[in-house]
Amino acid sequence: MKLPVLPRPARAATKLAGGAIAVALLVTGCGSGSGSSGGSQQPAGLTSADALKDPTEPVTINYAGAAYSADDIKPVLEAFHKEHPNITVNYQAVPFDQFNSVLSTRLSRKDTTLDLYDVDMPRTDAYQARGWLTDLSKAFPDLAGKVDKTSLDAATSDGKLVAMPFQTSSQLLYYNKSLLKKAGIPFPSAKPADRPTWEAVTADAKKAQQAGAKYGLVFDQVNRYYQLQPLAESLGGGSGAGGDKNLTPELETAGWEKSMDWYSSLFKDKISPRGVPVAQTPDLFASGQVAFFPGGPWWGPKFAAESKLDFGVAAYPSFKGGKAVTPTGGWSLGLNPASKKAVASEIFMKFMGLDNGGFAQYMPSLAVPPSNTAGTASFYDEKIFKDPRMAGAVELTKYELAHTATLRARTTGYVEFEDTLSKTYEDISNGASVKSALSSATSTINQAWAKYR
Amino acid sequence: MTLTTHHPAGDGAKPPPLPRGTLQRRRLLGNLSAAAIFLTPALALIVVLRLIPVVQAVNDATHTSLPGSTLPPRYVGFDNFTALFSSHAFWSSVQQTLIFNVLVNPLQIVLALALAVLLTQNLPATGIWRTLIFLPAAVPMTGSAVVWGIALRPDGPVNAALASVGIHQQPFLTGQGQVLGSIILIASWIGVGYWMIFLIAGLNDIPTVYYEAAAIDGAGPLRRFWSVTLPLLRRPLLFVLVADTVSNFVLFAPMQILTDGGPQGKSNFLMYDIFHNSFELSDPHTAAAELLVLLVLMIVIVAVQFRLLRSAEES
After folding, report:
1. H/E element holding A314?
2. DSSP secondary-structure letter at B4?
3. pLDDT band at A382 (very low <50, low <70, confident <90, very high)
């Protein structure tokens, strides 16, 4: 799940610092391989949630996270430390783009200095196949009803609970009211029933550009499967993976081709700019250069902080005559099987995912729904949703999570799949022929998946 | 070190003179042990930092496991190499790496040499020029890559400047025909000033008497450059050529930050692909096999460069 989590402007300094930390993690993660034989999936001392007791001696657990920046998660950790004075959580923030490399280095070497880490939901099966996750079925036997169903599904692999889901997500279509007004375009309604179509949004985007908008329509995550999967799904193209254990790429379908033709045309017709990396797209909307911006609700606080920016939100569009499909999924907490501090880690997992509605209550500007059902209620009371520019976001998010949210393809080969698709989306936006890009993606994925079949 | 000589017991008699051979052998031994002591740190570092990793790479390349798996890897002999050699993506990566290096290395050397010669000509404010040209090498590569990435965006400042003189928008990093050129530009912007400094040092080492003699013989500036400067600059030039080649073969940051090896694999150079396989796809075995291929490529090319410049020296 690709949630960039810098509600404040992402400064280069933060990025570089993050990079430095990641490198440091990489370095420390090296050379601690214990070299023992294949993993039993159980760290010593795993206890059922009801029987958990706080340690009597001080314990420090290491938690590598990519969902939140160190600043954002601080209040959660402070609350936890107050409640469990003998456990210290050492949070190591890793930039999302480097997260997979860092985890791969540390977990495949059975690094005992890593206890907990964020699990990007669609990668659950891949991590389980690699032996990176701990079976938590006995530790947390009754999650059903306490966390939302999609999150619970995403944290389950081979019928076992292997992670503690804590956050899910949805998407909105932001639009710049000033630019639409200038072009004489009526504002789209925020009701789920009035979902706009991509065709209509494209036409309006062009109109807005003729009236002076620099860009008509810019996707938040221009090259990421999370946000672009619904395009193909809306036209019945499927998730892109099928067959036995979802290990057969299915990208050369009419739905994929048609939706990617449309995606390619956005860039060819200069409605979207080429060559803008994901990290820079929200700034384009925040600075008032973009008419339509499909993006995460987590950008709400950033956009609302721009006093000059007048915007509104509508439902994430679908194609004309196609299905309404929206991105979803988020983060779980995984327990490293090599961890030597299972009990303290479990206590923190329980705190994040279950205790009194979970972590969300401590985060004053959380703009992404938690997985915990009790926590969700208080989440919708967040200050950001009181901003008139975010009017309708709450109903939309509730509706999407209940009706249109579609998980990403579930496969042990997800890492290679997502990686290849990122490059494919990028090639298509840069003008590669759609048919040849999808067929070369198919052969790349087939080659990578041979080892899993 | 003390050399104690053992005296055979003799009452008041002079010790017999030692045979000369033993003395020489002792001296030799002393020299050898001194040399060993002085060389040990360097040799230990070479073993730890160079040889052991190569052995590890060979070991990794001949094993396989599921990506990222915590299970011990299986021995598979040369399977990783056969898989690589039958992969179209790998050959395209080798091809792009070679094209890039064939273009970028001569270009950087020629530019660095031209600048070095220019800046040893007693121009006004030479120090300032040298500093300005060297500056990009002092900026971290990541920073340079990010800044160039923004500058070269299709809607970025470089295109704005081109538009003002009537050239329409160029794709740069987003066009498969221009990505290689764009990366050569970024790499050279960083590299040229750095290598220029070495060549300036080399130029300053050439005694002026040769130039005076050549001038008396009536040689013009071009002739002086060909017959005096180049032959006497051969050593620093060889070093710069080899070091530059190696550093461009292992260039990685601009692709990681700006292109992810795209568009359509046109900037997917071997070093980036090795990182990508090892860390992003958690497949160290394929990466190690690729690494050995890269190593062989580099050794062959550097050997050719040595041969060329040495034979020029002998002739």
Report:
1. strand A311-314
2. P
3. confident
Give the residue-averaged pLDDT of B224-248. Answer: 93
Q: Which amino acid is at B100?
A: F
- Count CB atoms within 10 A of the CB of residue A438: 23
Q: Looking at the structure, do residues A89 and A212 belong to the same domain, yes or no?
A: no
For residue B19, the model assigns a pLDDT of: 63
By three-state DSSP, how is residue A116 classified? strand
Q: Which of B159, B282, B283 to mutate to test the interface with A (most CBs of A within 10 A)?
A: B282
Query: Quick one: tokens of A290?
Result: 């973009």
**In a shared domain, residues A351 and A207:** no
Indicate whether A121 and A157 sit together in one domain: yes
Q: Residue A313: which domain range?
A: 172-327+391-452
CA distances from A347 to A34, A119, A336, A353, B246 (A): 26, 18, 14, 10, 51
Give the CA count within 13 Å in the CB-facing half-sphere of A178.
13
At A165 the three-state DSSP class reads strand
For B45, residues 6+ apart whose C-beta sits below 8 A from its C-beta are none
Task: Give the minimum alpha-carbon distance from B60 to chain A in angstroms, rounded to a whole number.
Answer: 14
Instruction: Classify strands A59-65 and A311-314 as parallel, antiparallel or unpaired.
Output: unpaired
Distance from CA of B276 to the nearest CA of A (A): 9
Choose among A266, A97, A277, A102: nearest CA to B262.
A277
Average pLDDT, chain A: 89
CA distance to partner chain A, nearest, from residue B262 (Å): 7
Selected residues 86-105 of chain A with any CB under 8 Å from a CB in chain B: 100-101, 104-105
Q: What is the pTM of this model?
A: 0.84
Task: Return d(Cα A126, Cα A413) in angstroms, integer.
Answer: 6
Contact A419 B176 (CB under 8 A): no
For range A339-349, the mean pLDDT? 96
Nearest to A275 by CA among B101, B206, B182: B182
Which one of A27, A100, A130 makes the best mutation probe of the B interface by having the most chain B beta carbons within 10 Å? A130
CA distance B312 to B315: 5
Q: Is A422 on the interface with B (CB under 8 A)?
A: yes
The verdict on A62 and A142 lying in the same domain is yes
| Residues A150, A373 contacting (CB under 8 angstroms) | no
- Which residues, 6 or more positions from B42, have their beta carbon under 8 angstroms from its beta carbon? none
Nearest CB to B174 within list A110, A132, A275 = A275
- The two tokens of residue B48 are 């730890």
- A399 and A308 both lie in a single domain: yes
- Whether A300 and A409 map to the same domain: the answer is yes
Report the alpha-carbon distance of residue B206 to residue B227 in Å, rounded. Answer: 12
Q: Do A108 and B175 touch (CB under 8 A)?
A: no
Average pLDDT for A21-34: 37
Q: How many CB pairs under 8 A join A and B?
A: 110
Cβ separation B70–A132 shorter than 8 A: yes
Residue B213's pLDDT is 94
Query: CB of A110 within 8 Å of any CB in chain B?
Result: yes
A433 touches chain B (CB under 8 A): no
Q: Of all helices (H) and strands (E), which one includes residue A91?
A: strand A87-93
Q: What is Dmax (Cα atoms) for chain A?
A: 68
